Amino acid sequence: EDLIHKDIENAVSHMQSVIELGRVVRDRKTLPIKYPLPEVVVIHQDNQYLQDAKSLESYIIEELNVKKLTVSSEKDKYGIYLKAEPDNQTLGRRLKGAFKQVSQAIKGQFRIVGFPESSRPAEMQ
After folding, report:
1. Which of 4, 37, 1, 7 is nearest to 22 (CA)?
2. Is 121 exposed, middle or buried, given 0-12, 13-18 or 19+ CB atoms closer than 10 A?
């Protein structure tokens, strides 16, 4: 256990997350890896996460086939917003008749303010 460096493990884990999410976005937008992109932007609230991504920039650039990596904590600058989407199948089974009301409330009334480290909504207003 003395040989385990948690900071390095966390940095590599963050890098892997960025690469996996980058691949998912490429798949959804039908942009094959063989076509280079000008830039990938990593947006996260945790500065340590951003530092880890920046420290392993060369690996991310190579794996995602991009020319530039930009890290930022300013989601508004890039037009990013968070929204709540209900799990219709689960809610339908549990709520039965009240499903429609609850689903509309989730979609309409709540504004997600942020995410904690667990990637679950932290605050809703």
Report:
1. 37
2. middle
Q: Are the C-beta atoms of residues 92 and 51 closer than 8 Å to each other?
A: no
> Tokens 């009334």 appear where?
109
What's the half-sphere exposure (Cβ side, CA atoms, 13 Å) at 66?
Answer: 21
CB distance 84 to 112 below 8 Å: yes
DSSP letter, residue 97: G
Tokens found for residue 49: 């996460």
pTM of the predicted model, to two decimals?
0.71
CA distance 12 to 52: 8
Instruction: Give SS3 for 7.
Output: helix
Question: What would the pLDDT profile of 65-97 be if each residue is shown by its tens digit?
Answer: 999 999 999 988 998 877 778 888 888 888 888
Please state, in angstroms and as integers, the Cα–Cα distance from residue 107 to each residue in 65, 83, 118, 121, 122, following that order: 36, 8, 22, 14, 16
